[in-house]
Structures are given as C-alpha cells and as structure tokens.
Amino acid sequence: MEPLEGSNGREAVLSVRGLTVGFGDKLVLDNLDLDVYRGEILGFVGASGAGKSVLMRTVLRLLPRRSGQIHILGADYDAVSAEERSNLDTRLGVLFQHGALFSALTVKENIQLPMREYLKLPKVLMDELAYLKIQMVGLPADAGDKYPSELSGGMIKRAALARALALDPDLVFLDEPTSGLDPIGAAEFDDLIARLRDTLGLTVYMVTHDLDSLFSVCDRIAVLGQKRVLVEGPLTDMLACDDAWVKSYFRGKRARSIPKHQDTTRGSSANARTSD
Ligand SMILES: Nc1ncnc2c1ncn2[C@@H]1O[C@H](COP(=O)(O)OP(=O)(O)OP(=O)(O)O)[C@@H](O)[C@H]1O
C-alpha cells in the first residue's frame, strides 16, 4: 500500500473524496472532500447536526455511504482484501463521545478488548501492554483494576484514550474528547493529546466544540457546513474567513474571551483556557 501524497506533498493518512451520505430523503454529506496529514492534529467543527459524527462513522465503516472513496494509509478500503482491511482497522483508534467503556469490564479489560480481537498474545504480555497504555495516558497503575463507575469523568476519558491506543494506531479519531470535563481537566487532556502526537507521531482527527482545544492544540481546522468541508486550514484561515457561521464561531464573543489565542503554545493550554 503506497501512502497517498496530498497536493502539498504531505502524506495523507486519511483521504476522502466525493463522499455522499444520506438517510432516506435527507442528504447529510454531499460530495465531501477531506485530507488528514500524518502527524497533525486536525480539529473538525461544524454546527450541531451538521454531520460531524456521520462523517466519522462513515469513515469508520459504521455507516453506509451513497458514493465516494475513502483511502486510509494509502489503501482504498473498498478494494483491499478482508485480511488487509482487518490490518487497516488495527491502525485506527477511536475514542467515542462519552468514553463508551464497557461498564462490566475493568479499565484493564477494556483496554485489552482490541488486543483480544486482533492480536493473539499471552495474558502476561497483554497485562504488561495494558499497564503501559494506562501509564501513557497518565492514569495511576491501580486504575487498571477499577470499573468505569469508580472513575471520574476525566479518568474515563483517559481510560477510553488508552483503549484507543491499545494497538498503537497511526490515526486516532476523538469525538468531542473534552466535553463534560472542567476547564483544567480539558486543558490537561489537550496537553496529553499534543504530547502523544509529539512522542508517538500520532495523527489525530478530533471532532470538537471546544474553542480552547482548537486554539491551543490543533494544527489545522476543518469546518463542516452545507454538507461539505466549507473551509480548512490553520487558525489564521478561520479568523480570515468571511463565511457567517465561521465568523461568528471563531470571532464571536466566546472566542474573543480567549486571551492571546494566536500565540498560545502547545503544552501550555491550561493557561489559555476559558472558564465558561
Ligand atoms: N442513523 C441515522 N439515521 C437517520 N438520521 C441520522 C442518523 N445518524 C445521524 N442522522 C442525522 O444526520 C444529521 C447529522 O447528525 P450528526 O450526529 O452527524 O451531527 P453532528 O454534527 O455530529 O452534531 P452534534 O455536534 O450535535 O453531535 C442529523 O440530522 C441526524 O439526525
């Protein structure tokens, strides 16, 4: 499988072309194009109901599409063999909204689920790997034996992230990872994402409504509107965009309350976070 090169010479780990998705008479995505490049954190935004979750679920093959091509790590999902498709699946990690851990399983068992599905490893090795992931996301070692109901919201997000990282993916999808966290917890989570990207070379596709995350850790932002990607680029492009929704989103009252957002450096998002 050859990696796809975008028009800017960067490797696109996810490339979507002409994607159309609908339900009955309702068209949600119409001829949508999108590239996500290796090593970047892409923030994906759009009005509520615009189709952000539908796009993510379609890319993950959880929803059918009417037309369009999806390439992951250079491979056309539709054209590869079942075995190659399964290999590709191991290179994607997903953190669904609200964590979505299995409540009857401990954190360790949740993290080991993808390992059980895709790898055949002795138990002792799976335990070691699970504790490595637990450490990686900043949870204490004893969190492994806890059930989701015994964890705080922030710990659940971290545990879900550890599960998303279970198979050492190239690309992780995060669906509103900071929703429900207090500003400090959200800032710490953003810092964790940035650190993992820097240390593991992860590529991150992050659906978010969180302006602080967009301002502090995202390298590029894509805006979903009118059933397609309306505008994509760095924050400066969003601030210069004349579309009414983009303008009110990035230059509205809440956005203006974020101090010095253009100068905010990675790893210091806690300092820049709004408190509302
Ligand atoms: N399985 C489905 N069957 C029918 N309609 C659906 C289905 N899934 C989503 N939709 C519709 O598709 C549209 C886009 O939904 P989606 O959940 O992707 O929005 P979103 O941008 O993620 O919104 P939010 O930011 O509120 O989470 C909505 O009108 C929704 O009702």
TrEMBL record:
Indicate the segments forming the ABC transporter domain, all copies.
14-251
Q: Which InterPro entries match?
A: AAA+_ATPase (IPR003593), ABC_transporter-like_ATP-bd (IPR003439), ABC_transporter-like_CS (IPR017871), P-loop_NTPase (IPR027417)
GO terms, molecular function: ATP binding; ATP hydrolysis activity
A Pfam family of the record is ABC_tran
Specify where the region named Disordered lies, as residue ranges. 257-276
Which residues lie in Polar residues bias regions? 265-276
Q: Is-annotated flag, keyword Cytoplasm?
A: no
Q: Which UniProt keywords apply?
A: ATP-binding, Nucleotide-binding, Transport
Similarity annotation:
Belongs to the ABC transporter superfamily.
Protein name per Swiss-Prot or TrEMBL: ABC transporter ATP-binding protein
Species per Swiss-Prot/TrEMBL record: Allorhizobium taibaishanense
